[in-house]
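A reminder from the course coordinator: this example appears on the midterm review sheet, so study it carefully.

Given structure:
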């Protein structure tokens, strides 16, 4: 049975890796004889969902040690010295369901580099010094970096934590303070033998490589333990009944970052995904100024840097202009991301006469986003909007695979969803789409008044924001004097409607930033 049908027929989904996925040692090839380079990707279908209970972060640590630690024969420093003259690159990325090792090298050095790859995958060193160094970095990320480096990414990941609470998707891929404190080098080695097996490995190779090289890789990695691969029990959570808000209170936050969303039973495997891509692109395509959210909140009102929406996880939205491969998932969600808007504290410091202001622009921005979201579901796109957006996506999605590495990555992701070549298949699906398909998909998958909302803000903003959310009072919008004089009357008319837009909040929960993701200080 297809995974999408499993989602539709029930909430509980039990996925056996060896049952759902293809047989062991599946290989994806992309020959490019004149490219002069070779890309190798090894995708293990484990990810953070294979972390044993109480050892969250173990898969991330194990993968990281394999690539950024030494092997049995070479130290980490020796490996870097070896690959430097080859201009070779290697990295690993661990997501919820897969860990992907990526290697790239000019064709002339393929033989030497592959010998080193064999060491990294088959004979990792797991030395004490590397373990201490890398787990220290990982602890620093979950204790400090996630809370300090980017409130936008912080909010998105805490939203996932809230949406998928009680499931293997709940915890950060890097784990949490408590789990990392208990991890040992023996845990890493045991997990390596358990979760990095040939039965959950997909091999990818692209570029200019000898014809027999693919068979050589299969024979090489057949030396990995057979398995069985880990079994992951995934439960798609029920959306909440109403709007629930978590306010994360921070010291000296520069603004208010907002993430809102709900679990959604739709992945790239479904033919409905292309239809919802069109709706989402018109509404809030990542980093695109033509989208409705960007136009209303950023362009017309200069409230913040950007306002976007997503129909699946978007890795590092603050840094990536285009979606990246390596994040295929079977549990999905819809989300809205409003980059930080001003707090009352910052507004009062800029404009005189606002001494009585109790909250900044967060509630107004949120109401505006939800109002636009509600309207697009109710009214649908017009034929012109549909055609313009679909035609844009026909070209835009080709940019996802502008490099050899990206092409190979998306081909491997395609296999995860039971597809052959998702990017190529999208073109045909877009061409056959009709306006009715898009408008129907929105009504079928997008929920109204059933959301979790995560707001990260300065502690000075919390009291007024919480009171406004609980009371449902009109939201405040303040413009600079210069902008105020240039705005057309229709903006003010729109603002008055947004201000009183109903947003039925069931509960508001305030949490100190030092206590998120299970951390306590």
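Designed residues:
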């Amino acid at each position: 049975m297809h995974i999408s049908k499993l989602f539709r027929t029930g909430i509980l989904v039990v996925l056996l890796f060896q049952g759902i996925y293809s047989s062991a040692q599946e290989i994806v090839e992309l020959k490019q004889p004149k490219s002069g380079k070779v890309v190798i990707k090894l995708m293990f279908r484990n990810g953070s969902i294979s972390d044993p209970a109480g050892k969250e972060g173990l898969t991330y640590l194990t993968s990281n040690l394999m690539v950024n630690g030494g092997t049995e024969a070479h130290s980490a420093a020796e490996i870097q010295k070896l690959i430097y003259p080859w201009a070779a690159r290697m990295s690993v990325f661990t997501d919820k369901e897969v860990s992907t090792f990526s290697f790239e090298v000019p064709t002339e050095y393929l033989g030497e580099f592959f010998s080193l790859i064999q060491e990294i995958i088959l004979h990792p060193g797991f030395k004490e010094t590397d373990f201490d160094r890398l787990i220290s970095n990982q602890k620093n990320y979950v204790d400090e970096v996630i809370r300090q480096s980017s409130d936008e990414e912080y909010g998105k990941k805490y939203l996932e934590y809230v949406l998928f609470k009680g499931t293997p998707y709940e915890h950060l891929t890097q784990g949490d303070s408590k789990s990392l404190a208990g991890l040992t080098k023996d845990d890493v080695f045991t997990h390596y033998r358990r979760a990095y097996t040939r039965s959950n490995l997909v091999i990818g190779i692209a570029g200019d490589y000898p014809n027999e090289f693919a068979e050589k890789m299969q024979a090489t990695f057949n030396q990995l333990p057979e398995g069985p691969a880990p079994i992951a029990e995934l439960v798609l959570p029920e959306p909440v009944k109403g709007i629930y808000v978590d306010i994360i209170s921070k010291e000296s936050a520069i603004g208010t970052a907002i993430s809102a969303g709900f679990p959604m039973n739709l992945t790239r495997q479904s033919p409905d995904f292309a239809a919802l891509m069109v709706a989402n692109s018109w509404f809030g395509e990542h980093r695109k100024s033509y989208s409705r959210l960007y136009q209303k909140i950023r362009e017309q009102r200069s409230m913040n840097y950007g306002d976007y929406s997503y129909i699946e996880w978007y890795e590092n939205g603050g840094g990536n202009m285009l979606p990246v491969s390596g994040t295929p998932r079977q549990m999905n969600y819809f989300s809205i991301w409003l980059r930080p808007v001003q707090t009352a504290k910052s507004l009062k410091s800029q404009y005189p006469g606002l001494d009585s202001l109790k909250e900044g622009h967060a509630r107004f921005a949120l109401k505006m986003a939800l109002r636009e979201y509600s309207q697009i579901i109710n009214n649908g796109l017009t034929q012109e909007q549909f055609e313009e957006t679909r035609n844009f996506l026909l070209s835009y999605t080709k940019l996802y695979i502008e490099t050899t590495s990206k092409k190979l990555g998306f081909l491997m992701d395609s296999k995860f969803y039971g597809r052959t070549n998702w990017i190529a298949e999208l073109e045909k699906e877009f061409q056959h789409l009709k306006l009715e398909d898009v408008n129907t998909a929105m009504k079928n998958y997008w929920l109204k008044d059933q959301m979790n909302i995560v707001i990260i803000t300065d502690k000075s903003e919390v009291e007024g924001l919480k009171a406004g959310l609980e009371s449902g009072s009109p939201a405040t919008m303040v413009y600079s004097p210069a902008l105020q004089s240039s705005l057309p009357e229709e903006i003010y008319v729109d603002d008055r409607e947004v201000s009183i837009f109903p947003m039925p909040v069931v509960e508001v929960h305030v949490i100190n930033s030092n206590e998120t993701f299970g951390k306590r200080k």
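Residues 128-148 form the longest helix (21 residues). The CA atoms of residues 71 and 124 lie 4 Å apart.
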